[in-house]
Amino acid sequence: MAGRALALLCCGHPAVSDAAVIGIPDAEGGEVPKAFVVLKQPVSPDVLIAYVAERVAPYKKVRVVEVIDVIPNRPRARSCAAC
To answer: Regarding the domain with residue range 3-79, which homologous superfamily does it belong to in the CATH classification?
Structure first.
């Protein structure tokens, strides 16, 4: 699943105002998704991981969530700024 699609899924959670997803190195899978999220209201990263996991195949799940203040405008990050 593309990073943008995972970012849009993250943005489907009511507590998320924006998100971007990148791949990070993983010893077993080569690369796994990491989400950077901007929150409208407090929510734990575990809740967001579970939210996405309920909606995708196991190998597509976001494995790491990092809460940040703003999504930088970088071409490699797949953001859903329209959320």
So the answer is: ANL, C-terminal domain (3.30.300.30)
76 confidence band (pLDDT: 50, 70, 90) = low
Give the global pTM: 0.84
What are the domain boundaries of the chain?
3-79
Residue 45 region by backbone torsions, left for phi larger than 0, else alpha for psi between -120 and 50, else beta: alpha
Between 1 and 30, whose confidence is greater?
A: 30
Over residues 55-77, mean pLDDT: 85
